[in-house]
Amino acid sequence: MRASARWLLFIMLAFTGLARAATPAATPVEQIERGRYLARIANCAACHTNAGGAPLAGGLPLRTGAGTVYSTNITPDPETGIGRYSLDEFDRAVRHGVARGGKRLYPAMPYPSYARMTRDDVAALYAWLRAEVKPVRQADTAAQMRFPYSQRWLLAAWNLLYLDDKPVREDPAKGAAWNRGAYLVRAVAHCSACHTPRGMLYGEKGDDERSRHFLSGAIVEGWSATNLTGDQLTGLGAWSKAELAEYLRTGRNAHATSFGPMSTVISTSTQYMADGDLDAVATYLKSLPGVRGETTPFRYDPAVATQLEQGRFDRTGARQYAQFCMPCHGAGGKGFARVFPPLAGNPTVADPDPSSLINLLLDGAVTARVSTAPTDYHMPGYGWTMDDQELANVLTFIRGSWGNRAAPVTEAAVGARRQAMGTPAAAAAHAR
């Protein structure tokens, strides 16, 4: 090699070393801070903390169609938690669903989504859990799964079908925000775990935005998880990026107010997202085309509002609506901006599955508890005062008024949800 070539090679290597020195690895403090942030986005506390229990000590029941799984203790306790886990063992549990010692985890723990997290992000979670979480000695509760789902060894075959640990697919043409949003939605925030329907073996039907099933809505523990695609009536087609980011930050916007499990997600997770990440998630979700063919925007019809304002209760369910619902949601079904949600054009009202609406009317709900709002708001439940047919009548009235065109709700559907939720019948409540 000529001397000039050797000098050129030396200079190139020197500049490479300088470039590496200019971008050092994260310090332990930075790694722990990142782990704390990721734990919030991944919503670890919501699943790994039982009601009234110690933070992250597990024991929360997670009810599935195959039985009940209880979340595990992920505090750094050496006997009952992750105190003896190496980083490799922790990574294997988080991204492949295999605990230390080889026990396979049920996918109620969303490791099929976490499988796409980067090694650096998993390492940051590990650093935070070990450095800042208080160890709690609490043994895990055994899962109660029906046969054959009680056979954990079958999960090895399940993983072959549904586990894909390749990095989230990037599209340079979509820009940095879209790609960051894809990573957050598909991996860390694991939105598809609730919002993508599952097949007979409980695997998600859609893997990413190329599937018509991906984020198209699903049923989770008796609640209808909303369609997150661009459909105009039951999806996010009518929402702007800013409105979507506002909802994830505050639990409310001009179109809807959070309730049920989503209030928990917002309270414990998405309200803490950095502005850039909120914009990234909104950018990605708003890029998803509608999957239900809803291309015509909602069109408001004032006819029912006029009837109610005139004191006319001709339609079935109108009188109950006027008594129980109209004080907050108004004769026009428009609610009160960012406090009481509109019922006219609300995606949850238009949802083909009325489960969430039935739950709301039976037991009530509470909005997300966030730092940006002075208080949360409670909707009372009416299962104690209206029977199943009356509740069905009110919901059918709401789903068919002000331009809404959703299917009627049956008495049987309300009765089934009442039984599943353990809400006393109206007659029994009056008797007490």
UniProtKB/TrEMBL annotation:
Enzyme class: oxidoreductase
Molecular function terms, GO-annotated: gluconate 2-dehydrogenase (acceptor) activity
Subcellular localization(s) per the UniProt record: Cell membrane
Highest taxon listed in the record's lineage: Bacteria
Keywords from the named record: Cell membrane, Heme, Iron, Membrane, Metal-binding, Oxidoreductase, Repeat, Signal
Matches recorded under InterPro entries: Cyt_c-like_dom, Cyt_c-like_dom_sf, Cytochrome_c-type_DH, Membr-bd_ADH_cyt_c
EC number(s) stated in the UniProt entry for this protein: 1.1.99.3
PROSITE patterns for the chain: CYTC
Signal peptide bounds: 1-21
Protein name: Gluconate 2-dehydrogenase cytochrome c subunit
Domain Cytochrome c: 30-133, 176-289, 312-402
One of the Pfam families matching this protein, by short name: Cytochrom_C
